[in-house]
Amino acid sequence: VPAVEARHVRKVYPGERGVLALDSVSLETRPGEFVSILGPSGCGKSTFLRCVAGLETISEGHLAVQGKKVSGPPDNIGMVFQRDALLEWRSVENNILLPIEFKKKATSAYRQKMADLLKLTGLQDFSNRYPQELSGGMRQRAAICRALIDDPALLLMDEPFGALDALTRDQMNVELQRIWLETRNTVLFVTHGIAEAVFLGDRVVVFSPRPGRIAEVLTIDLPRP
Ligand code: ADP
Ligand code: ADP
C-alpha cells in the first residue's frame, strides 16, 4: 500500500470567508520515495502536510496513510517543522525519546536505536546537552532523530531548514540526503527552494499559486549512490 494516497482532497478553513487552501489535490507515493513539494507561500503546502498528519481534517475527498483513512494523528508518522519545537528543558536524548514516552512505550527498548540515530546525524557527543547549547543545524538534526526514533512509515518535513542561514541549509541538505539513503523512509518534503527540491527529490510536486492545485508533476530520476 502507498504510504500516502490522496484523491481529490479539498480543504476549506472555516470562518466568515472560508479560506480554500486545497482544491482537489491528488497524490500517491511510491514505496521509499522522496517527494519534494514545491510552491509559493500560501498555496497550501503546509495545509496538505497537516492533513496527512491528521492535524487538520479534510473537507472533501479521500486521504489515507498506509492504506488507513486519516482520522486524527496516526502513530506511524514522523514530523519535522521549520521551527524545531525541541523542549528547552529536556536534554537532546530526552527530546528524541518524547514520541516514545508519548506513546507510553518503554524508552529502554529504544536506547540502541537512539544511539544509531545520534551517530547517523553526528550528534553522538551531544546526547546530554540541552537544545540552547546547539547550533540551528544541530537542533534540526536532533528534530530529525526525534522524527525517526520510532521507525515511521512516513516522514513529513515542512521547510525543515527554512530558518537556517544559506550555508547551513546547504550542509543540512547534504546531511539529509545521506540520512535518507540510510533510512529510505517515504518522505514528503515541503520547500520554497527549487534547488533543494530537485537535489533531494525522486519526484518534485509543484503546487500552483491557485490554492493547493498541483500544477505539474515532474519526476526526476536521480542517480543515487
Ligand atoms: P508558511 O511558512 O508555511 O507560509 P505561514 O507563515 O503562512 O506558513 O503560517 C504560519 C502559521 O500560521 C501556520 O501554522 C498556519 O496554520 C497559520 N496561519 C496561516 N495563515 C493563517 C490564517 N489566515 N488564519 C489563521 N492561521 C493562519
Ligand atoms: P503554504 O504552506 O503553501 O505557505 P498554507 O497551507 O500555510 O500554505 O496556507 C494555505 C492557505 O490557507 C493560505 O491562504 C493561508 O492563509 C490559509 N491558512 C493556513 N492555515 C490556516 C488556518 N489555520 N486558518 C485559516 N486559514 C489558514
TrEMBL record:
Gene Ontology MF annotations: ATP binding
Highest taxon, organism lineage: Bacteria
Gene3D superfamilies (alphabetical): P-loop containing nucleotide triphosphate hydrolases (3.40.50.300)
Pfam families: ABC_tran (PF00005)
ABC transporter domain mapped to chain residues: 4-225
Keyword field: ATP-binding, Cell membrane, Membrane, Nucleotide-binding, Transport
SMART domains: AAA
SUPFAM superfamilies: P-loop containing nucleoside triphosphate hydrolases
Signal peptide coordinates: none
Family statement drawn from the similarity comment of this UniProt entry: Belongs to the ABC transporter superfamily.
Protein name (Swiss-Prot/TrEMBL): NitT/TauT family transport system ATP-binding protein
